[in-house]
């Protein structure tokens, strides 16, 4: 798949996870979602805890491939988390990426990351199996984003690190997505008994977006035929092209590829997909506090795909949660901006690795 398309799809997935609802009296679910998407762009700072848990990832014939069976065993109950604080002005964020794989080769690592308007700092974890030199362990690798762009022959722009502009982009993409989906088919308000939220979330309204076996074909058709053209138009705006580091030629290529798509073939493929896709669960729930802020989101996906050519059955069951706290408050940065002996440049990092592995 084209890298630009992948970026768009990932952006829309992230935007969809942040399904929101507005403030004041309870609104119609879809209206609440669209209003709150705009509200989200007003956040100037926040603490965030986000987690992806793979409850199950299995393949019916994995026992015929021992390596694959081992990987699947590690991924079962695997967790990926992001926990940190963010602020817009001045732009600064620090967060810890947590990776926890289970099974016979269980391991867990936390990787702190710090970002400013033009630099990124990544702490080198102590992973014995990688043989990282002790002189590098627990140091922060300083990545100069402007210098990196120049080395890659790309003109660097501060917009690529602009959290406010990124929020605005997500808002426009979210609105483009939501505007095309029918409220009665995909959205509904739910009660507290249907959605467990953290105790510190004073929820005023709970909204659910849901795709089922009955509307999956329609949902994908809408995404391809109606949403994607809108998203490409949003990406083509000057301020977003700069942020996404994409060119007019890439935009033109995406439009050409989209316009050349055989709609009748897509319709036939989607009709065929109905016979091989089972959606047990595909929901995105959001709890909105009294200020109209999306304080907590939870996405649940449980699907089964049967491949008619190989008779392979794949089951993916995962949960995604995001919890926003201390919104628009002064954030406390525990790490701060690394400096002095705690920092190595990318060049120093590469040189020390080269020396360690040159035996």
TL;DR of this structure?
The protein has 359 residues and is an alpha+beta fold. 35% of the residues lie in helices and 30% in strands. This is Lipoprotein.
List keywords for this structure.
single chain; 359 residues; alpha+beta; twelve-stranded mixed β-sheet; 11 helices; 12 strands; globular; disordered N terminus; Lipoprotein; coiled coil
What is the arithmetic mean of pLDDT? 84
List the secondary-structure elements in sequence, H or E. HHEHEEEEEHHHEEHHHHEEEEH
Classification by helices and strands: alpha+beta
Span between N and C termini? 39 Å
**Strand order within the widest sheet?**
7-8-9-10-11-1-2-3-4-5-6-12
Estimate the helix proportion, in percent.
25-40%
Overall shape: globular
Main sheet?
12 strands, mixed
Radius of gyration: 22 Å
What is the secondary structure topology, with strand pairs?
Layout: H1 3-17, H2 29-40, E1 45-59, H3 66-75, E2 78-87, E3 92-101, E4 107-116, E5 119-123, E6 140-144, H4 145-151, H5 163-179, H6 183-186, E7 187-189, E8 203-210, H7 216-235, H8 238-244, H9 248-259, H10 263-273, E9 277-289, E10 294-306, E11 313-325, E12 343-345, H11 346-356
Parallel strand pairs: 6-12
Antiparallel strand pairs: 1-2, 1-11, 2-3, 3-4, 4-5, 5-6, 7-8, 8-9, 9-10, 10-11
